[in-house]
């Protein structure tokens, strides 16, 4: 067991002195080095000019790709840095081509924005969207996926850790099946990157999307897409600009090689540099150590919530993570969230419109979501439970 220096983590995190932050699945509190990097670059822009500051910070910008590559076990050229996880995911998904009769396999845990994109493309192309059954633990059934995986399946797209539950879907088992079948595997790792080890080679995914502001503790408005080297140059991004492609002659252009064809020219350099610092900061703690502490805190929270008379913990799955979801008898999720907020405890609400296949299937209109990070403490968890006692 690795012991993480919680006092140092909290000392590095100015927000810990202000709030009990159990909304890390919404946006985590950034550590001081991230804050300093973002503000430092904004000051540089103000002093030198934006373009000149970007040129002066070129090494830091390159370091962002190297840091992400170290984090997820890929090459820097396999990363596109974009505005958020949704844009990353969309750039990959809308680059794929489908025809009538093609099928996509997805999970019950799937995030609303992904499903909306499936449904739009299904309407346009005649593609069919199939939701793989859950197994007896409430995670994607690998056996059902295997049964459905045939020649008509053109994509398997799965959410690793859903927005609305503590579940970790069995991504490596899914990757083994998709590799064997030669079907692209798009993993939404928005809620998993930063709280548990994610290695694209071990998971066997071809495409992966993630965000900066959640468990990575980076700035808002940052995200990234991993595209395997094998696939990148075969995919045409849905949007091109003069960064993604070069205008080579009067009526011709060439798309840039590698994952950066999925980026666009203008970007928030301060936030991008901050994302790289956030990744390095996470790596300095060690993602295994982060997962160990996060899962221990979340287990304590589930156990304590389970002891309260009106509370039902709603998480399912064999492997659980730092997201804890629950309902309170006789009180809406929004009211519980507000009651906790009034006591200085940040949580959030996941509504059925964010995860209809899952929450809708379980007859839940909404759940309260309390999501821990390694800088949270047992005392903070106990403070939340004390409020829910009445
Ligand atoms: C599972 C999952 N996927 C994707 C997203 C979208 O991320 P972003 O808001 O960075 O686009 C979220 C956001 O909550 C999420 O929970």
UniProtKB/TrEMBL annotation:
Source superkingdom: Bacteria
A Pfam family the protein falls into: Aminotran_5
Keyword Transferase attached: yes
GO molecular function: transaminase activity
Cofactor dependence: pyridoxal 5'-phosphate
Domain Aminotransferase class V: 21-384
Family matches, as InterPro entries: Aminotrans_V_dom, Aminotrans_V_PyrdxlP_BS, PyrdxlP-dep_Trfase, PyrdxlP-dep_Trfase_major, PyrdxlP-dep_Trfase_small
Listed SUPFAM superfamilies: PLP-dependent transferases
Similarity field: Belongs to the class-V pyridoxal-phosphate-dependent aminotransferase family.
PANTHER family to which the protein is assigned, alphabetical: BLR4730 PROTEIN, CYSTEINE DESULFURASE
The protein, known as: Aminotransferase class V-fold PLP-dependent enzyme
Organism, scientific name: Nonomuraea roseola
